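User: Hello, can you help with two protein structures?

Assistant: Certainly.
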Amino acid sequence: MTEADAAAARTVAITGASTGLGRDIALGFAAIGYRVFGTALRAEGVADMRDASAGKVVLAVCDITREDEVEQWVRSVSSELGDGGLDVLISNAGTLTPGPMELIPLGAVRHEFDVNVFGAIKVINAFLPALRKAQGRIVQVGAVTGRLPLPFDGPSSASKAALEALADVYRLELKPFGISFVIAQAGNMRTGGPAKTAAALKRLTETMSAEQRELYGARFDSFASTLNQLQNSGLESDVAAQQIIALADQATAAPRVPVGPDAVELLKLASESSDAQLDAMRVQLLGLE
């Protein structure tokens, strides 16, 4: 790419871009000519993406829960962007901590919010000067559980609900600067997430005491089995990535967009049903009867 081409190309920064959905998003943007920057947790992810994209995607090792690392990454990217600013920020990095709320260590709940909420806030705020220059767009990758929390998914559901509230706040605060804010409400997807979720579910099951298994074992096993089935039957990662890329590349986009047919259906139910109806649906959906 010549200097003139680089100056003309649209730009995107993506958190959690070395694996799963973030990886597919990064490669998808590179394929349509964007200059792509992103974060990875490990150096291997940086090297793998460099090879997979033929050098078109530039990742840096950055843990978004560490403010110093976020600031260093954003300074580096902003320097590369120059006066053109940043066209698109995809806030994608996230984690999942399943289990009964009574049994999840408070430190694990804090970590969930550090990644999913506080890390997202830090990255968004750090990129705002560059986004103002380009009058860019922020796409926050959320989840259906932000509107329809699930039992045994408390920390993740709560963090995604926080992102829903922040989406409304950011959208209105940033509108005067020409920055748009979209939240992608993802349903089940076949990314790297299901394997990580299955491992996390297995770890928790194996560490339960006899008393804890008496309290939660049977229902949690049912939840774990159903969740693994749902995630493995979800939208293919590359298809979900293309839908999210389309949100970033549209001239205008709705403030909230479901990603996947199950997301459309569940969000409709969440908006139209009573609490009692939703409770019954959640019990049935997760096989907790």
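That covers the first. Now for the second protein you mentioned:
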Amino acid sequence: MAVTVRVIDSTQSFFDLRDKWNDLLNLSTATVFQSWEWQWVWWQNFKQGKRLFILLVLDDDELIGIAPLIKSFSSLELPLTVVSFLGGMITDYNDFISQRGYEERVVEAVFSYLKNQDGWEALDLNEISGNSPNLRILKKVVQQVGGLEKRELAQDMAYRLFLPSDWDNLLPLLSKKFRWNINYYTRRLFRDYRVKIVKVDDEDEIKRAMDEFFKLHRKRWFEKKIPTLLLSKKYQNFHHQISQEFFQVGKLSLYLLHLNEKAVAALYGFEYGNVFYYYLGGFDPDWAHLSVSNVLTSLVVKETIKRGFKVFDFLRGEEEYKLKWGSSPSQNWRILVAKKRGTANLIVKLIAHESLLIKKVKAGLKFKI
């Protein structure tokens, strides 16, 4: 059977792909971040200076793969045409979408197509999860393609908690101190306060709840004198839009913990398949002495277990609280391909410098929850 590649480079064509895109997603091992909704809303908010370069891989007329890509016309302040993932740096896991069993065929078709195309100088595929079945194939195929310069760079660590069938089976896996903390403060809150856990289930409540979440998230980071992306209006607009889109398709999970009618903690996440994705949290530092963030997280973890989720994904970032939950680390990777050795060497040096600066900043931003 003939495998062909088709390019999608117009916004209307991207929009029209919605159903086929998500049908393929359901046949793949890709994450919630490869959903059409996430990719579409990202494009609406961050498309300036970029051009769509989505590659559809077809086996005869059957869609077996999507490479959700864009072209940028500068990179690291260099005048280079770079092909990279839709979703950019704010996406925890970037990846191709491949029908199960067709991963190798999809990756090979994409790289065969790219190798023979003009109009790009570097391919920068960032934040590919070490758990992705495409990663091993990508590394192998990239090394096999001749005439190109290749680099593999380690990026962020991500953490996943594999959920047991029952909450009582999880508790013994936690440290004695952390287990005591959760149990003690949960009992104390329910004893001393009017506790209300709100999971947003009404479309009309999403914006108000997201605004409350933004406020709690910023308040925590302001108290630590640490900058946050949520100060950006564009970033807030993205999350307001994606929360609406995900609510429509049953992927939004937004929780607020109220004590005596006051919101003191929030947890903003996504659901897809058997995985719960904990994207961001926030809490009022005035209530930190009652461990409100840990209590809310424990109640959400307990609910995900009850609902049959298999994984609670804490996503990128080496915050200490993720380890307290007994989550397992995995490495995200960045695959860089360039047509010329000089271009590859220069980009790698700049990326290495950029990565070092980011790691130093992140090391200074770590805090205990």
